[in-house]
Amino acid sequence: MAGGNPLTRRTLCIGVGATVAMAGLGALRYVGSEPLVRPPGGQDEENLVSRCVHCYRCIEACPEKVIVAASLDAGVLNTRTPRMEFSDCYPGQLDDFRYCDFCAERNGGVPLCAAVCPSGALQLPVDYAPETEVIGVAVLNTETCIAYRSSFCAFCHDVCIQVRGEENAAIYYQNADAADALDTRLPVVDAEKCNGCGACEAVCVSAQAGSTMNASERAIVVKPLEG
Questions:
Q1: Residue in 93, 91, 110 with CA at minimum distance from that of residue 101
Q2: InterPro entries from the entry (predicted)?
Q3: How many domains does the chain have?
């Protein structure tokens, strides 16, 4: 009996410590974690974080290579979970860029990332369709956008039409009908039409073309959906 008590106390301490640690991680989930743009089926943050086993299968399966593992900078619980990365492309290339096409022309239209996920962290809605899926929204920074700062630039507008088609394109010119506006057209994002595919971010030349010194990101980037 004398030897049992210390073991019991030790076990109790370990259990309490683990509970406190998990509670702390739960707090970090909301306080210290950065919202991230997730692959298709990963828009339920709580489901993704709780179920992701960090197997990297989604990263390996992505044919466009736009899924990467989140770093510690994104928060403890986000570390090694999948996020989308569209800026790792050479800017200004309308014939050689990578974006999320939701595998519309592959695997029967079911995103390969979600198809290979073994844990259900990437879980497509029952009514999933590649043409209606939304993973984020493009946000344009007019302070660093070349079109707003200095001269005409059409990369984001043109690639959106190229990828989405004229009718579904989410980027338009706010003064497209103005007289003699060809060289002063200003791009605008229609958030209601944007699906977060990342094509605009992939081709944006802003940070590389000197629109702003020491720019930390491109002028148009895909942001997570709210709430």
A1: 110
A2: 4Fe4S_Fe-S-bd, 4Fe4S_Fe_S_CS
A3: 1
